[in-house]
Design brief:
The complex is a heterodimer of chains A (368) and B (523).
Chain A: H1 16-24, H2 31-45, E1 52-56, H3 63-84, E2 91-95, H4 106-116, E3 126-127, E4 142-143, H5 149-162, E5 167-171, H6 182-199, E6 202-207, H7 212-220, E7 225-229, H8 238-253, H9 267-273, H10 278-294, H11 302-308, H12 312-333, H13 340-346, H14 349-362
Parallel strand pairs in A: 1-6, 1-7, 2-5, 5-6
Antiparallel strand pairs in A: 3-4
Chain B: H1 41-51, H2 56-64, H3 81-86, H4 88-91, H5 98-111, H6 142-150, H7 159-162, H8 212-218, H9 223-242, H10 253-267, H11 271-278, H12 282-289, H13 297-307, H14 311-316, H15 346-361, H16 368-374, H17 380-386, H18 388-402, H19 406-418, H20 427-434, H21 438-444, H22 446-484, H23 491-497, H24 507-520
Helix pairs in contact in B: 1-2, 15-18, 17-18, 19-22, 21-22, 22-23, 22-24
Classes of the chains: A alpha/beta (368), B mainly alpha (523).
Bound molecules: zinc ion (ZN) (2 copies).
Amino acid sequence: MLEQRFFDLELLKKPSLEKLAYFKGITVPHRNLKEVLNELKANILEPADTSIFFVFGVTGIGKSTLIKRLQKILLENLLEDLLSNPGQIGVARVEASSSSQGKFNHLDYYIQVLEALNEVLINYKVDYGISETESDGSKSLVPAVIKNTSTLRRAMEKVFINRKLRVFIVDEAQHLFATAGGHQLLNQMNWIKSIANFTKTIHILVGTYELLNCSTISGQIGRRSQDIHIARYHQLLQEDVIEYSTVIQTLQRHLPLLEEPQLETHCEYLLQYSIGCVGMLKSWLVRALRISLEENATTLTLKHLKKAEFSASRRKQILQEAEAGEKRLQDDESDSPTSLQKQQNTNPKSQSQGVGNRKSKRDLVGGN
Amino acid sequence: MVLDKNNTDELWDLEPPSVPERSHLFHLKPIGMGTANVESLTSYIARLAQAHCITVGRLVCAEIAPSLKEGYVFNPKNSDMSKVYNSIFTKSLNGKCSTAAVIVQVLEKLTQRNDLHFLTMLSWADVISEKYLLHPQKAWCPFCYQEWFEAKQVVYEPLIWALHVVQICPRHHCRLHTQCPHCYKKLPLLPGNYRSGYCSKCQSWLGLFPEPETFKNSQFLSEEELELQLKVLDNVGELLAIAPDILFYPPSNNIKNVISVYINQLTKGDLSEFAKLLGLSPHSLNKWYRGKAIPGLNKLLEICFYLQTPLVDFLMATKVSAASNDIPIQPQTPVKRSTQTFRSNPSLLEEVEKVLLAALEESPPRSLYKVVKDLKNITRSSISRYFPNLCCQISERYAASRKPNHQKIRPVLLSVVNNGEYPPPSVAVIAKRIGIRSKTLYKEFPDLCEKISEQYSCYIKLRQLERIEKIKQEVRQAVLKLHNKGIKPHSRYVSELLSKPGLMRDKNAIAALHEVRCELGYE
Ligand SMILES: [Zn+2]
Ligand SMILES: [Zn+2]
């Protein structure tokens, strides 16, 4: 009589806010994210030459989940070091901010990084003028009253080194390259590379497909970087549909409702309307759950899903972003031998492109 | 109802592992620890500031000074930098004064290191006098600076340069410089604008190329002087190198004891004869002999040179027992090595391990500091060096006891509430069992503690009722016995029949007596 549920049944007696919080806290692993994670893990934990990773995917694909999971895995691997060295930080992350002028500001970035690493007295950094590279020892100690970019850069590098930072993750990394012109892009690439090389800290730049601009350029200046694509799930790939349906089933098991919803019957609809992004699917279900709870419904039905679905314009925007990015990626990959095998995973998207568009117009009934 | 916890693939846990708090300042490693070239504390502070890209002045005023007790050394509220640096504060930092000890403590807390002590002369605080211990100003070797700079090594100041008895560089054997070759000024030890290797007055680089010309100019030492200085370096260097390894900081009466042994040996107890022999002032010798003062490093070296005893052995001679009076201490043969180290004394190692292991069982747990303090004079750093894991466990256990681990404690409390342990324990008993203070337990788990204490007080009440019932029955039996024998059940007679003599004074017993007497018609 009692069906097996995957959460503490006590939860059903709790207020809606708690139920929502529970469901929001659920993270469902899925193939595409696992693959990316495994690749990063293998590359980071085994000594390799790569010092910069570009990790990109469409909005809502689950980048923040990836970052959190990666941080956890790396910290667990470094735990022994961290316990024996109370000064080590090991792994840190920062979110690059978009600047108002549309141009990336190095000074702000350094300050942000120093803050992320809990550095002391950020406003009082001075240039000791004793450079590791220059031998010009005649400069005097200049207090950085006017905040000086090179002083703060040195301060940041020293923190990386002294805190034995192994991996530094920059979220929304496309903002680092929000500069005009190919030449400046190259400068930014060289800039981040020199920091990574000098401090021996692996940089993981996570962002949107805009990062593809850099990877093209990075190909020109050395092989110390690697591109990793977080792919979405495609309707036309049998294995993608199966994986997505597994994710949906896992998610539905954790919806704290009296009756477990039967969402897998709407798999096609859910996959299509979330653009194949698990992150989007999840936030969609959170909203649907809220609606269902407000109605005091015993379970979550198609009606709730419909009410909570993303607007057509939002979907269109994300789909465009995804397709444009995937196309760019495919074009780039055709002349990059290293990622040929990756291409196989994402290849059929060129076919799905057109079909997907047509379908989204036709199939508004959803499900069944 | 069953949670599928086995299926790890079902969900992803994003909670990062708990990592102990990171050090506030960099956990910068001192240079040359355990060698004669160990870095000085002032040099360490300067390098720490440079690593953080802040001036030494800023580091001291913004990070170190606020951690000092107010009114200590200077008032942090109106501390302007010059005041800090004009005080004796920096001059004696590498020495053995209490300021040095306090600064070491503060810095160790900020960097989470436990070895900064050895960047000073604090290990020898009780056996070497403060007089003439340190150079009043900065003393340095310009050739060392240049060499390090060119080899891209860290430019620093060894502690040995700071000692007053040391006049030459241990590596280049040239006289240490005390004046900037560019502005001819004497330099303070730790100015607010310190940069390692630079003059703080004129900002010039202090390193010099060891060209034959400059080298010769620095070398004013005669053969004899040089030989003496080399001996000084050997002895003092050993002192600095061995400091992290010693277990007991030598106590001040070492000096007194060792001197009296030598006086007995050499001049048959004649103090003034001994003074004459060694060329010492009888007045000072008398003070040392009576334990009223301790000699300066210069005097100690003179004595050791005469007695041909390594300085370390002289200072570390921990116990000179009556028996050791018979040890043939000839002026020509060095005394037997008595330095206490874990290496030299494995049984002590076992003893310490035992204490540490026992500390792990203690409830409530004590802090590592307290545990080590009980190990008399064994230094904390040597213990944590030899038993890093045990020390770590002790600290963690203590920390855990201070910061209750809800995940571990809750089930314990729940099982007490639900499983009906008999007799039900009090909250205090459980707190002791877990190893935390009951006050903390009440604060963190008010609901569960209330239930536990309710159960406990119920039990206590029940026990009381049982006791009262027992007394009543006893009294009743006694009264009936007397009544059946035809004796009037007076409380005196009843009392004689009870198991405990004073029982009849119990108010419950009186009430019971009254009750039965009523029943039997006596009242
Ligand atoms: Zn030298
Ligand atoms: Zn000068």
